[in-house]
Amino acid sequence: MTKKNHDADVAFIQALAELLRENDLTELQVKRDYGADDSLNVRVSRHNHQQVVTQMAPPAAPLSAPTAPAPSAGPAPAATEDPAEDPGAVTSPMVGTVYMQAEPGAPAFISVGTSVVEGDTLLIIEAMKTMNHIPAPRAGTVKRIIVEDGAAVEFGTPLVILE
């Protein structure tokens, strides 16, 4: 690649980053083909931690504390913790729509308590009309399913907790 193409690519990437900011987008992906053996594939993304925390906070947790102060003191912190910080969290690698089964009416790939091995499909994320199988990054047992079938997810959104 020539110096001129490199400078143009840097300017192009900066323009994509500016589009991301101006339009309040979380991710852009573009591929430029220059020739048979020359192309540029760019993905620019940002992750807003406040959105994820806000979406994941359950509203019912504070209501249980006044009725039974001693027993609720233990479970309440677990309910308000950020699932993304759990060491067993599997996060979304992309923006899209979650599907828990291969097709409508089919059994779900996983449920709480399911044992999985590395590479097993946990769920599908549809992005730009493409069905992307999300594999288990390691063997374990499904402790918690955070997302619902048909939910929209952002890059980095916690999907499942494996233990």
UniProtKB/TrEMBL annotation:
It comes from the Bacteria. Residues 54-89 are annotated as: Disordered. Residues 87-163 form the Lipoyl-binding domain. InterPro entries: AcCoA_biotinCC (IPR001249), Biotin_BS (IPR001882), Biotin_Carboxyl_Carrier/Decarb (IPR050709), Biotin_lipoyl (IPR000089), Single_hybrid_motif (IPR011053). NCBIfam families: BCCP. CDD domains: biotinyl_domain. Pfam families: Biotin_lipoyl (PF00364). Residues 75-89 have a biased composition (Low complexity). This protein is a component of the acetyl coenzyme A carboxylase complex; first, biotin carboxylase catalyzes the carboxylation of the carrier protein and then the transcarboxylase transfers the carboxyl group to form malonyl-CoA. This is Biotin carboxyl carrier protein of acetyl-CoA carboxylase. Keywords: Biotin, Fatty acid biosynthesis, Fatty acid metabolism, Lipid biosynthesis, Lipid metabolism. Pathway: Lipid metabolism; fatty acid biosynthesis. Gene3D superfamilies: 2.40.50.100.
